[in-house]
Specification:
Length: about 500
């Protein structure tokens, strides 16, 4: 079978000021009725934002959706006020203009809405885009980096359409596979070493990526940038929210095609995308077994290999970046997070899910972290399905998964990790540097968007070290007592009710 549609490659935007307009649109996905969509500077998805390490950037996010939304810079280390979480809604018609310094390493991030209880809707209708950060260390490596030629962005998503061709929000019949918003796509690439920047931008589906013919590839980057060295693989499991950068040597395949495939038949039970989404046959999701993608292999992209470019990259570098994970002994706090279903028994898998027994509560900050703390977070999944756990503000290093050292391709900087079902555990280590605020917290949550919208999320503040911290602060009590606090949260010029307790918050990196 031959793919029908040329892969759409998003435009790029760069510079000190970047204008992003969220709006409604229509797309002809299927024969017949047009599909109502949401997009950024266009009807679907958004431009790829290219940033240079060390620059500052102002994002002018104009919301023309006719309803509130937010934009979050997923994976980026930015001040909480600029992070775009649910506490920073952009009212219909307003423009939000956060500015921040780009402190990242060369890496691939993404941006998407984060309005509480509407994240899945806004993402699945089409708002998502990539962020590519460049830095001098990466620029000095011999790597493909000509955007759209030998460095190809791939936003991998699935969607469900109803009988009227409209996007369905939150059901298990996500039977349509899209790459960069293109159904049934092909891409023409040169016959040389090509870089693929992958994002799993699906709402729930875990992908088990590989190529037809088991063509080997090298993973060179994780969520937070380059690995220490390329890792050769034939399969890569990518959970919602995760990114990966790959190098694929196509020089022997000129004139031929290979396919990027998700080998869903190989996914073990208790992962969304496997034949069994739960621990056993009784634990399933309504409509799940009707979806032919589940438990089966399916094609994402047909790659047609043509002649090489004039100065092709032909080899895989031996080493990439220097990684400096924190030693476990340097951690001064360990926090535990336990995931449980609200319902027990066969419907447990349908959620909602809780973290430490609680659902997300906008008015109750879960805990405060002292600035510069090095922490170990221990995640335990007491539910029957794997959850991709994500944290804002930081990149982390995985210490272990079910007690075992992670494989080499997971030893890089990460901001999403899939926590195995059925008492699975993950421990990671991270440091909360540079930014603190009394006013706006950072989020942690499951990146299966219906789970997040259903409350599988929490928030924490990073506070200056002299702040007098506790896990159940008087400040939180004040928040609960404030009149109509939910309304105060909704305004863009929100003054927190505990402003009296405020001391200077550091919202940019100290000089
Ligand atoms: Cu990609 Cu809090 O999200
Ligand atoms: Cu994020
Ligand atoms: Cu989840």
């Amino acid at each position: 079978m031959t793919a029908q549609n040329q892969l759409l490659v998003p435009d790029t935007v760069s510079g000190e000021v970047i204008d992003l307009e969220l709006g409604m649109g229509t797309v002809q996905f299927l024969p017949g009725t047009l599909t109502q969509t949401m997009g950024v500077n266009g009807p679907l998805l958004g431009p790829t934002i290219i940033l240079q390490q060390g620059q500052t950037v102002t994002m002018n996010v104009s919301n023309q959706l006719g309803e509130p939304s937010t934009i979050h810079w997923h994976g980026m280390h930015v001040p909480p006020e600029a992070d775009g979480g649910p506490h920073t809604p952009i009212a219909a018609g307003d423009t939000w203009s956060p500015s921040f310094a780009v402190l990242e390493r060369a890496s691939t991030h993404w941006y998407h809405p984060h309005l509480h209880m509407h994240t899945n809707e806004h993402v699945v209708k089409g708002i998502a885009g990539l962020i590519i950060v460049r830095d001098p260390l990466e620029a000095a490596l011999v790597l493909p980096r000509t955007y759209g030629v030998d460095d190809i962005p791939l936003v991998l998503q699935t969607k469900q359409f109803d009988a009227d061709n409209q996007v369905v929000v939150g059901d298990a019949l996500d039977t349509h596979v899209l790459v960069n918003g293109t159904l049934d796509p092909y891409v023409d690439v040169p016959g040389q070493v090509v870089r693929l920047r992958l994002l799993n931008g699906a709402s729930e589906r875990v992908l088990n990526l590989g190529f037809t013919g088991n063509h080997a590839f090298h993973q060179i980057g994780t969520d937070g940038g380059l690995l220490a060295a390329p890792v050769q693989l034939t399969r890569l499991r990518l959970a919602p929210g995760e990114r990966a950068e790959l190098l694929v040597d196509l020089s022997a395949l000129q004139g031929q095609s290979i396919g990027l495939v998700s080998f869903g038949s190989e996914l073990p039970s208790a992962i969304y995308g496997a034949a069994q989404p739960g621990m056993g046959p009784g634990q399933t999701i309504p409509n799940y077994t009707l979806n032919p993608l589940n438990g089966n292999d399916f094609s994402l992209l047909q790659i047609n290999v043509g002649p090489p470019t004039p100065n092709p990259i032909t080899s895989i570098p031996g080493t990439l970046a220097v990684l400096t994970p924190w030693a476990e002994a340097s951690a001064n706090t360990t926090r535990t997070f336990t995931f449980t279903p609200v319902n027990m028994g066969p419907t447990a898998i349908q959620g909602p899910f809780l973290i430490n027994g609680a659902s997300f509560d906008m008015m109750n900050i879960n805990f405060d972290v002292p600035l510069d703390n090095i922490e170990v977070w221990e995640l335990t999944n007491q539910s029957p399905i794997a959850h991709p756990f994500h944290i804002h503000d930081v990149q982390f290093y995985i210490l272990d998964i079910n007690g075992a050292t992670p494989p080499p391709n997971m030893q890089g900087r990460k901001d999403v990790v899939l926590v195995p079902a059925g008492m699975g555990t993950v421990r990671f280590i991270t440091r909360f540097e540079d930014y603190s605020s009394y006013d706006v917290p950072y989020m942690y949550h499951c990146h299966m968007l219906p789970h997040e919208d259903d409350g599988m999320m929490g928030h924490f503040r990073v506070l200056p070290q002299d702040a007098g911290l506790s896990d159940d602060t008087a400040l939180n009590g004040l928040m609960r007592a404030a009149p109509n606090p939910a309304l105060t949260f909704w305004t863009s010029r929100w003054t927190p009710p505990w402003a009296w307790a405020r001391s200077p918050s550091r919202t940019s990196r100290a000089a």
